[in-house]
UniProtKB/TrEMBL annotation, chain A:
Pfam family, one: ABC_tran
Matching Gene3D superfamilies: P-loop containing nucleotide triphosphate hydrolases (3.40.50.300)
Domain ABC transporter: 8-245, 266-510
GO molecular function: ATP binding; ATP hydrolysis activity
InterPro entries in alphabetical order: AAA+_ATPase (IPR003593), ABC_carbohydrate_import_ATPase (IPR050107), ABC_transporter-like_ATP-bd (IPR003439), ABC_transporter-like_CS (IPR017871), L-arabinose_ABC_transporter (IPR053466), P-loop_NTPase (IPR027417)
Keywords for the protein's UniProt record, in alphabetical order: ATP-binding, Cell membrane, Membrane, Nucleotide-binding, Repeat, Sugar transport, Translocase, Transport
Protein name, entry field: Sugar ABC transporter ATP-binding protein
Automatic annotation (TrEMBL), chain B:
InterPro entries: ABC_transp_permease
Predominant localisation class: membrane
Stretches that traverse the bilayer: 21-38, 58-85, 97-116, 122-141, 177-194, 214-235, 242-260, 292-311, 332-359, 365-387
Organism: Kribbella albertanoniae
The protein's name: Xylose transport system permease protein XylH
Function of the molecule: Part of the binding-protein-dependent transport system for D-xylose. Probably responsible for the translocation of the substrate across the membrane.
Coiled coil: none
Gene Ontology CC terms: plasma membrane
Residue ranges of the region described as Disordered: 408-432
Pfam families: BPD_transp_2
Keywords: Cell inner membrane, Cell membrane, Membrane, Sugar transport, Transmembrane, Transmembrane helix, Transport
Membrane topology note: Multi-pass membrane protein
């Protein structure tokens, strides 16, 4: 395999965002006709690297060199890379639901006859391309009327309409069920026999093990190693070791947990996807939280952790099918968000800008927003009390701002996160669910957030932390549940938690012995 | 916090595009002074001011409701038709069924509430965009007006006309002024002074340093001055006139709704929904209830505006309320509301509405034709919003801000700040 000539070489690629080095001296060598997998934790730099390659970040925006088919390539935009035969299929499908299969395949690339679109040719070629990807559908069918698996195939057909040489797939099977995934992987193998090179980014290590010829592992924006699957005898464990090996000392404040009795319990929680009715996002989930305990939920993107949390929090996601919640031994109802708040639940969303905060608000208004009744009398807000409360949280959580009258949008990410935490602490919750509480904030602020989480636990509250960073979960939590495809696949105590074990449980549906 | 900022805050509250509103106050003053000169002093005569109030009060009442609709992220195109529909229903009820006129007013408010609830139902519970619902309502209730009234005018009795064309009675000693208006002015002055004192006390309770005394003094003097001037003008018109009853209704509504939107839990929810509906929902706000409420409330205020107009013109007709929605919407946007919702204040919308009203009035006094007046109003709306959009894209708050910056005295921060404060940069996005 390694005898094949090099198709693509990326040499010491470095890409910086304000304040963050997303890629540092990354190297990637892809040979002709192989399936090359790129592995790494969330935030390791996989997608950034592919964006550099496909011209989303144009030449000049990064440093380093891209050599493609023996020449240096300087792509100014996506079109430039597509013209050279590099086509990327993103995780979020870029199809227009209300348009037909033919229209989507040739979107922006329509065959023409004079000024008009040549629909006849388009339709004929659409049929050819669909045959190529093994799809039997009427080309006039609207995208919204076919399943996600078929949509993924349409995306690939679209790539072939552009004369693809190097196909990049970012998490192609993330949204697919088992059989659709299998079909897609078979297709990739078939392309390989036709001499098409593919790069695949995937969290599903079993798939990678099965399909890839070589694997490049990224961690923290750096190339860790490149493995030849056959020659090196690579298996899932080997990949996991490469992905997670990292120093975790002194990133967490000192803390001695004081865990009490179980007070919160979820049984048999099953939730259906809001649109795709044949998909369950939570499958009979059972878990419990003790007083003063920090419980982690580990899982890959799309594993269903957020969905589980939000469906618990007033059925804010999906359709509830079955399951009960018990608090202090008594069954409680969590049908609406207000009911959840009254029952002492708080949910700090993973996306503070989109759904966590009103960015038009000022700090003090945001802090009281989830339970304004606490500072109001007969529905009239006591401004003095509001200001006092905000001031208390500003000092307690060290929110860096000249005044609590400042607008939220003026704060840095870490300080915004503290405001969201304050907002939910203000509701006097017994159980806080923190979804990716340190996403997009710098190391110093992370340390402070960890301290806040510990303090909440010390007060006897239960804290659930959902995080994609395993070291964070291991450093922070007393107990960790692993989630894969909507199923809780295991439960690991702090003492037994190591990244490899967790990663294994996060990538398999098989229940592990606890 | 500088005195100027403080002044702005106290005039408008903090949750809005203060810059544009403050700019609008300047614009309003400039327009008044400009027309005062151009019309040889006609603008600020008692007669003209009274006419302006009774002529535009219903638009301003609509602007209050429209502000709340727009803050929640919607729009209401039907207000003119709803006003006309309510007007004809009330006029017909009084004429054909001998409904006493006070009951007629109640009937009108109920009709408005029902229409608002009807539209609110579609917007909040079915999820039809308000633009469509109220576009349909615009046709529906315009047609309804002509259907019920046979496209004819229906007169209303004397008593009913009070709310649109009435004045405060002349009581007490002959001072040469309308005594009740003077009394209102006095109450206004006291209220302003009390509020200022209250605001200072509140800041002290918050542990923040109140604005320097002289700033309070200046602010108070300006406000009291304006109130006294207005009082004397409104009280000093032709005998039998005063501050119009419709103006008093308007002032009452402004006070109530300002308080409601700024100081109550449910008022704030409107801003939360308009600012980020999903975040509001996840904070326990019931979106449907808020949306239903703002639409229903708009219906009630549209009904009130319609009745005031009918009262003023002594009859309800098929052309009532034509294109009112546009004036109301323009007032709200000139007054600093954001098209995307979540921003805006009642007082700002009133200022925006007054800018339009005085512009209209001044141009009319100068004998400018309706054609030109419309063109000028259109351009004012465009430029007012464009200026704000431009300034925001430049990272500045407003032109007025940048003009006044050199004169601003930076006071101590409002509250003690920990030593390690580094002011976060506005433009650097969070590292991701």
């Amino acid at each position: 395999m390694s005898a094949a000539p090099v198709l693509l070489e990326m040499r010491s690629i470095t890409k910086t965002f304000p304040g963050v080095k997303a890629l540092a001296d990354v190297n990637l060598v892809v040979r002709e006709g192989e399936i090359h997998a790129i592995c790494g934790e969330n935030g390791a730099g996989k997608s950034t690297l592919m964006k550099v390659l496909s011209g989303v970040y144009p030449y000049g925006d990064y440093s380093g060199e891209i050599r493609y088919r023996g020449e240096e390539a300087r792509f100014g935009d996506i079109r430039a890379s597509e013209n050279s035969g590099i086509v990327i299929i993103h995780q979020e499908l870029a199809l227009i639901p209300g348009m037909s299969i033919t229209e989507n395949i040739f979107l922006g690339n329509e065959p023409r006859k004079g000024v008009a679109i040549d629909w006849k040719t388009a339709q004929r070629r659409a049929l050819e391309l669909m045959k190529l990807v093994g799809l039997k559908e009427d080309p006039d069918t609207l995208i919204k009327d076919i399943g996600v698996g078929k949509q993924q195939l349409i995306e690939i057909a679209k790539a072939f309409a552009k004369d693809v040489k190097l196909l990049i797939l970012d998490e192609p099977t993330a949204a697919l069920n088992e059989s659709d995934s299998q079909q897609l992987l078979d297709l990739l193998r078939e392309f390989k026999t036709q001499g098409i090179t593919s790069i695949i980014i995937s969290h599903k290590l079993n798939e990678i093990e099965a399909i890839a010829d070589s694997i490049t592992i990224l961690r923290d924006g750096k190339t860790i190693e490149t493995l030849d699957v056959k020659a090196d005898g690579v298996n899932e464990d080997r990949i996991v070791r490469g992905m997670v090996g990292r120093d975790m000392s002194s990133r967490f404040p000192d803390y001695t947990p004081n865990v009490g009795e179980v007070f919160f319990e979820v049984r048999d929680w099953t939730v259906r996807h809001p649109i795709a009715h044949d998909r369950l996002v939570c499958k009979q989930a059972n878990f419990s939280v003790r007083r003063g305990e920090v419980v982690g939920f580990a899982g890959l993107m799309g594993a269903g952790r957020t969905e589980l949390a939000m469906s618990l929090f007033g059925r804010s996601y999906g359709t509830w099918l079955s399951g009960q919640v018990f608090k202090d031994g008594r069954q409680i109802q969590l049908r609406t968000v207000s009911e959840a708040i009254e029952n002492g639940l708080a949910y700090v969303s993973e996306d503070r800008k989109a759904i966590g905060l009103n960015l038009l608000d000022d700090i003090k208004t945001s802090i009281v927003a989830a339970k304004p009744a606490k500072i109001a009398r007969h529905g009239v807000i006591d401004e003095v009390a509001e200001h006092r409360v905000a001031e208390e949280y500003r000092q307690e959580l060290r929110i860096k701002t000249p005044s609590v009258d400042e607008g939220i949008s003026k704060l840095s990410g870490g300080n915004q996160q503290k405001v969201v935490l304050a907002k939910w602490m203000f509701t006097d919750p017994d159980l806080l669910i923190l979804d990716e509480p340190t996403r997009g904030i710098d190391v110093g602020a992370k340390f402070e957030i960890y301290g806040i989480i510990h303090r909440l636990a010390e007060q006897g509250k239960g804290v659930v932390v959902i995080s994609s960073e395993l070291p964070e979960l291991i450093g922070l939590c007393d107990r960790i549940y692993t989630v894969f495809e909507g199923t809780i696949t295991g439960e690991v105590a702090r003492a037994d938690a190591d990244p490899e074990r967790l990663m294994k449980q996060m990538t398999t549906t098989k229940k592990m012995p606890v | 916090m500088s005195g100027l900022q403080d002044l702005k805050k106290n005039l408008f509250g903090g949750t809005t595009s203060v810059g544009r509103q403050f700019g609008m106050i300047f614009t309003l003053v400039a327009i008044v002074l400009l027309f005062q000169v151009l019309t040889d002093g006609l603008t600020l005569t008692s007669g003209n001011l009274i006419a302006v109030v009774s002529q535009y009060s219903y638009i301003l009442i609509l602007a209050i409701g429209m502000l709340m609709v727009i803050v929640a992220g919607h729009i209401d195109l039907s207000v003119g038709s709803v006003a006309a529909f309510t007007g004809i229903v009330v006029a017909k009820a009084i004429q054909n069924f001998d409904v006493p006129w006070p009951l007629g007013i109640v009937l009108g408010l109920v009709v408005g509430a029902l229409i608002g609830a009807w539209q609110g139902f579609w917007v909040a519970y079915i999820g039809v965009p308000a633009f469509i619902v109220t576009l349909a309502g615009m046709l529906l209730f315009r047609g309804g007006n002509q259907f019920i009234g046979n496209a004819d005018t229906v007169p209303v009795p004397e008593g009913f006309r009070t709310i649109g064309a009435g004045y405060l009675p002349e009581v007490g000693p002959a001072t040469g002024y309308n005594n009740l208006t003077l009394l209102l002015g006095l109450i206004g002055c006291l209220a302003v002074a009390w509020r200022e004192w209250q605001a200072r006390r509140t800041r002290q309770e918050m542990g923040a340093e109140p604005a320097p005394l002289w700033i309070s003094g200046v602010r108070l003097a300006v406000m009291v001055g304006v109130i006294i001037f207005a009082t004397l003008r409104f009280a000093g018109g032709r005998v039998g006139t005063s501050l119009p009853v419709s103006g008093i209704i308007l002032i009452g509504l402004v006070l109530i709704y300002s308080f409601y939107t700024r100081n109550t839990v449910s008022g704030r929810r409107i801003y939360a929904v308009g600012g980020n509906a999903r975040a509001a929902e996840l904070s326990g706000v019931k979106l449907q209830r808020v949306n239903f409420f703002v639409m229903t409330n708009m219906g009630i205020l549209a009904a009130l505006a319609g009745m005031i107009f009918v009262a003023r013109s002594a009859a309800s007709g098929p052309q009532d309320g034509l294109s009112w929605e546009l004036d109301a919407i323009a007032a709200v946007f000139i007054g600093g509301a954001a098209v995307s919702g979540g921003l805006g204040t009642v007082s700002g919308s009133i200022v925006g509405g007054l800018v339009m009203a005085l512009l209209n009035n001044g141009l009319q006094l100068m004998g400018v034709g309706v054609d030109l007046v419309q063109m000028i109003k259109g351009l004012v709306l465009l430029f007012a919003v464009a200026l704000d959009v431009y300034n925001k894209s430049q990272g500045r708050f407003s032109v007025i801000d940048s003009i006044t910056r050199p004169f601003r005295r930076e006071g101590p921060p409002a509250a003690p700040v920990p030593a390690d404060v580094s002011r976060p940069n506005d433009k650097t996005p969070a590292a991701s």
